[in-house]
Amino acid sequence: MPTPEADPERHHHHHRGRTTRPPAAVVRPARPSLRQLFRVASVACGIQFGWALQLSLLTPYVQELGIPHAWASVIWLCGPLSGLIVQPMVGHMSDRCTSRFGRRRPFIVAGAACIAVSVLIIGHSADIGWMLGDRSGVRPRAIGVFVFGFWILDVANNVTQGPCRALLADLTGKDHRRTRVANAYFSLFMAVGNILGYATGAFSYWYKVFPFTLTSACDVNCANLKSAFIIDIAFIALTTYLSTSAAQELPLGSSDRNTPFADEEPGHSSQAEEAFLWELFGTFRYFSASIWLILLVTGLNWIGWFPFLLFDTDWMGREIYGGEPNEGRNYSDGVRMGALGLMLNSIMLGATSLLMERLCRKWGSGFVWGISNFIMALSFLAMLVITFVNKSIGHDSPPLGIVIASLVVFTILGIPLAITYSVPYALISSRIESLGLGQGLSMGVLNLAIVVPQVLVSLGSGPWDQLFGGGNSPAFVVAAVAALASGLVAILAIPRSIPQKPRSFT
Prior knowledge:
Layout: H1 8-14, H2 34-41, H3 43-64, H4 69-75, H5 78-96, H6 105-123, H7 125-131, H8 140-172, H9 176-202, H10 206-209, H11 220-246, H12 269-274, H13 276-282, H14 289-320, H15 330-363, H16 365-393, H17 400-412, H18 414-420, H19 423-432, H20 439-467, H21 473-493
Helix pairs in contact: 2-9, 2-11, 3-8, 3-9, 3-11, 3-14, 3-15, 4-20, 5-8, 5-20, 6-8, 6-11, 7-8, 8-9, 8-20, 9-15, 9-19, 14-15, 14-16, 14-19, 14-20, 14-21, 15-16, 15-17, 15-18, 16-17, 16-18, 16-21, 19-20
């Protein structure tokens, strides 16, 4: 990330009365190759592998532990709340980090280690609950352990993701086209991680590969979950090593700290940390109209996405397969079929990521984002139609056509999801550069537009669904309306990016 040039007058003012030395030349790393950016982005694969397991298996699993469907969404409240506080704070701290290992890499490694610990806690929650006295039915002790591990996992995910994005932005600097390519790589690796994670979640015989996971407290479904998280630990360790070893970060000296709100000297770090929240929200007055529009579209976009990400496999188990947790095989069969659908979704996400740069260069990022949101709205409406048709048929198991239609919708949703994982970050990164903000802080600001809608959905989706008789359809109605609104704003209000002439990368 570029650093501001030294101001001789300001330098003299701050150091008046003492001997000064001419500022040392700032050594900048060489321009990274595409291969290096590719390796740095690979950490997204390991992070998303765990996210895929979390999104596909944990909502059904927590209901099997005894939490009612109406309150299952509240468990996910920890994610946006930790994102609201942790990710902006980590972004701010990483912008100022002076570790000899670089600014971003220490946070990435620490977050990956916390992810490994948290998934071990989640995977063994039933066993720990059994040791504390749980036996059958509702297992409150296991639920408590699960929630504790779940919250650590969400905090760790937020610690890791922001610095990953910021590291790519640091490496690409002001080259906006290269920034889009880096974000497309990141989105591609997220797709690969999703594919592998959802495939792992859909496989129902992991307990045979890891037979020690099957215990008195942990049945087959639980043992499969525990085994999947063991694989996750190995995978995130590998991708974290590949990413951090490829990044060429120079240690940030105190003279290189970059903030538009304070000119700090060494030794004032405590004051800087106290000023963090004021600094974060103080950035708002510097935002242009285009930045506010990006944040608005992002907020509406995630009001649409979060109900799907929260209830996708649960929808397949309940509305399509007609099952209930802990009542026969229909529900667990539906959850595994939902995981298969999410794997197909990720394949489509990866294919779209490969075309991202070409699409945005031809039609403009705002237009591509808007069209993808329309696709998203139509897909949610299709899910409502499939639900209605399936209920009107009334079979014990869903007809093959209904299952295929559901899988097709899941697959199509990979197109707008790829746009969501890439375009907003590239847009906000390029526009916030002119303000002189650190990329870590800019990612934290964008994260606010993501987590606030998630808080609303987490608190409201369960009671909202119960108000209309249960199920997941009411939440999908809200998701479709929000996606439609975000598409209209993106197309009508966000200026199209000016296409850049193609140039070769070195």
